[in-house]
Amino acid sequence: MPDQRLRLGCVTTLDDARSSLPDITSSEASLRRFLHGLPGVDQAGAEARAAGLATRSIKTTAKQYAIDLAISMIDLTTLEGQDTPGKVRALCAKALRPDPSDRAVPQVAAVCVYPDLVATAVEALGGAHRSVKVASVATGFPSGRTSLAVKEADTRDAVAAGADEVDMVIDRGAFLAGRYGAVFDEIVAVKNAAGDAHLKVILETGELATYDNVRRASWLAMLAGGDFIKTSTGKVAPAATLPVTLVMLEAVRDFREATGRQVGVKPAGGIRTSKDAIRYLVLVNETAGDDWLDPDWFRLGASSLLNDLLMQRQKIATGRYAGPDYFTLD
Amino acid sequence: MTKFEYAPAPESRAIVDIKSSYGLFVNGEFVDPVDGSMFKSVNPATEEVLAEISSAGADDVDKAVQAARRAYERTWSKLSGRDRGKYLFRIARIIQERARELAVLESIDNGKPIRESRDVDIPLVAAHFFYYAGWADKLAWAGAGPDPRPHGVAAQVIPWNFPLLMLSWKIAPALAAGNTVVLKPAETTPLTALLFAEICQQADLPPGVVNIVTGAGDTGRALVEHPGVDKVAFTGSTEVGKQIARSVAGTAKKATLELGGKAANIVFDDAPIDQAVEGVVNGIFFNQGHVCCAGSRLLVQESVYDDVLARLKRRLGTLRVGDPLDKNTDIGAINSAEQLTRIRELSEVGEAEGAERWSPECELPERGFWFPPTVFTGVSQAHRIAREEIFGPVLSVLTFRTPAEAVEKANNTPFGLSAGVWTDKGSRILWMAQQLRAGVVWANTFNRFDPTSPFGGYKESGYGREGGRHGLLAYLKSEG
C-alpha cells in the first residue's frame, strides 16, 4: 500500500495532523501559514467537475431512494422578520408529516428558526422533538455584526430554549481582512456557548468570493470545532451552488482523512427543485462518499424544496402529477 | 454495495435507423461498389453486427475522385464564398437538429459513452461547421493573399476514435476554402459518416462536393495515391502516416498529417490538486484513452506524489465502466478486438518490465471489448509503456524533482502532440509552454478543444495544423 498520508499544504507536510492540530491553531501566524498552504482550487476546473456531475441521470429506483433521502435531510426553514408562532407551529406540523395523505413519507431532519421561536418549535414538536431536531440561527444572524458577548448570549438563549443545533455565522469581515485568529476564536467561543448543541458554521460563501477562500474557511471552521459547515444564510446571493458545495465536500473528506473527525455539510438557500436536490446528493455520493449520505452528515437548508420533492414522490407512486393545492403550505 | 446505486438510465436507440447495408456515397447518391465486396461494422459493446458496409476498390475510389473533380470544376469552385457558407451553415444546423440521433449512432458504432458523444463530440462537430461556414466569404482575410485559391480535390482519411468529429475537422475547412472532398472513414466506425452523407443530401449540397468511400487500409491507400488528388489530409497512426508521407513525396500533392502522441501531463506541487486529479482522469480516460493527444504519461513532482496518487486511485474507484448508451457511463467499450489486443499486450509488457499495475475494482460486461482503467506506477523513461502510444485507458506514472527535469522528460519522446501543466503559478505555465515541444500545451485543463484553436504536432506526431485560421490555410494555395 502506498503512503496514504495526506499532504495538507504546500508549505507544510503534516505527518499526523491529529497531533499537529494544536500547533496549527496555536497562533495567528501558524494558522495563516496552514490555511494559505492548502492546495488551491482552480475555478474553471471545480465548476466543470460540478457541471459534469450535474449531468448524472437519476431514474426509477435511484430516484425514489434519492427523493426520500433528500426529504429526510431537509432543515425545514423559516427565517423571516414576519415569522409568528402560528407560522412556526405550521412548519413543525409539516416537518412531522410532510404529506398528510401518505404516512410512508419520512420526517425531515429539523426545523430551523430564529432564536425567539425555538421554544414555540419545541412545544409544537412535543413528543417528536429530537426525532425532528430544532435548529436555531444565532450570533446576530444573518450579518453577524454584533459583539462576541452578544453572539454568545444569543447562542445560550437558543440552547436554553431547547435548540439541538445552532447555525452560527462567521465574521466575514474579519475573514476577508485576513484576521483568521479572530474568526477561529469566535467559533471556539460560540461552540463553548452552544454546549452539547451541534454547531453549524455558516461561511456565507456568496461573500467569500473565491473557492480558495471557501476551502480556507471550511478548514478554519473545522479546526475550530464546527460539527457542520454550511454554505449560506439564504440572505445573500449567490447562496448554495454546486461548485461551492463540491469544494466543501472535498474539505470535509480531506479533514476526516487527516484527523479522523467527520464533519457534516449543509448547502442552504436557492435549492428549490427535486432535480437540484438530487444533484447535491450525486455530488455527495461521488465526492465524500457513502458515509455522508445520511441526515446526520448532510443537510439541505430549504423550504419550498419539500413540496417539490413530495410532488415528484407522488408522481412516481401514481404516475400523475397533482396540482399544488394537493400539497400543504407550510 | 454502495447506498446510492444509480439505476440504469439508457438512452433510447429508437431514434436511429440503421440500414442492413450501405453503399458508397459518390456524386450525391449511394451506389454499390464495383466489385461488390462487403464488410461488417459491429457494436464494440455487444459484438452485435450493425450493418454490412461496402468496401471501395480502386475503381470505386477513381469514380469518387472523378465526381469530386467534376463538382470542383463545374460548381463548387464557381460558387461565391457566401454561397458556400450558406451550405455549411445549413449542414451545421441540421447537425444540431439531428444531434441526438448522431450521438446515439456514434456511441453504438464506436463504443464511447453517450455522455461524451452527446456533450462533447456532436456539439464540437456543429461548432466546427459553424466556425468554418463563417470563414467561407472571408478568405481574403485569412492571411493567404488577397485572392487565395483552393487546392482542388482533397483526399481525407480519418480514424475511429472521434469518427464524426474528425470528419468535421476535415470536411468543414476544405469546403469553406472551396475544395471538394473524398473522405474515407475508419472501417470500424463508418456509420456516422454515412449518416453525414444523408445530411449532405438533406442540405441539397451539390452532388460530388462530398464523397464518402468506406473500406479498410487498401481503400485509403488507393485514395491518397490517386493521381487526381491535390491534397491529402490524414489523421491516424504514425506508421500509416509515414507510408502516406512517402507516397506523396515527389508529387504535387500537399499533405497534413495528424498522428500519434504520448503526452505528458505535468503536476507541480503547487497545483490545484483536486482539479489536477480530475484533469489527469480526463486526460487519459476520456474516450477510453482513444485520444491521440491523451495525457498518457503522468509526471508528478516527487513532493506530492503520494498525495496525488492516493487521490487519483480514490477517484478512479468512482468511474463507471459499462454500457455506452447508459447516460451515467464514464468509460465505454474499446473500439475493436484488434485494439483491445494491443492494449493488453502493451500492459503485459509494462508488467514484465517491472512497472506496478493497478486497476480499481470494476465488473466488465461479458460480451464486447472491455479494458479496465489502469495505472502503472514505478515507470521509467526506458519502459515501453512510457514510450509507445497505447491508445487505451492506461496511465503511466513517472516522477520529477525540478521544472527542468519535467521538461526534459516530457520532451524525451518521439512524439509531440500535446502536453498539460498543472500549477498555480502563471509565470511557470508560460515558461513551460515555451520549453515543451508539443503542438498544444494545456494549462490547468486537458483535452479541451475549440474550432478556433489550431491543433497539430511536432516530430512524429505529424505536420500541419487543423482548426482555426491555420487549419483553413492548409486548404488554400498561399501564392493565390
UniProtKB/TrEMBL annotation, chain A:
Q: Name one GO cellular component term.
A: cytoplasm
Q: Which InterPro entries did the record assign? A: Aldolase_TIM, DeoC, DeoC/FbaB/LacD_aldolase
Enzyme type, top EC level: lyase
What reaction does this enzyme carry out catalytically?
2-deoxy-D-ribose 5-phosphate = D-glyceraldehyde 3-phosphate + acetaldehyde
Signal peptide range equals none
Pathway(s):
Carbohydrate degradation; 2-deoxy-D-ribose 1-phosphate degradation; D-glyceraldehyde 3-phosphate and acetaldehyde from 2-deoxy-alpha-D-ribose 1-phosphate: step 2/2
Q: Which SUPFAM superfamilies match?
A: Aldolase
Swiss-Prot/TrEMBL GO biological process terms: carbohydrate catabolic process; deoxyribonucleotide catabolic process
* EC numbers for this chain: 4.1.2.4
- List, in alphabetical order, the Gene Ontology terms for molecular function in this entry: deoxyribose-phosphate aldolase activity
Keyword line? Lyase, Schiff base
Q: Which Pfam families match?
A: DeoC
The record's listing under SMART domains reads: DeoC (SM01133)
Q: Which family does it belong to?
A: Belongs to the DeoC/FbaB aldolase family. DeoC type 2 subfamily.
The name this protein carries in UniProt is Deoxyribose-phosphate aldolase
Q: Which gene encodes it?
A: deoC
TrEMBL record, chain B:
Q: Into which family does the record put it?
A: Belongs to the aldehyde dehydrogenase family.
Q: Which InterPro entries match?
A: Ald_DH/histidinol_DH (IPR016161), Ald_DH_C (IPR016163), Ald_DH_CS_GLU (IPR029510), Ald_DH_N (IPR016162), Aldehyde_DH_dom (IPR015590)
Q: Which residues form the active site?
A: 258
Q: Which controlled-vocabulary keywords does the entry list? A: Oxidoreductase
Provide the species name. Jiangella ureilytica
Is the Oxidoreductase keyword given for this protein? Answer: yes
Span of domain Aldehyde dehydrogenase: 34-477
Q: Name one GO molecular function term.
A: oxidoreductase activity, acting on the aldehyde or oxo group of donors, NAD or NADP as acceptor
What is the designated name of this protein?
A: Aldehyde dehydrogenase family protein
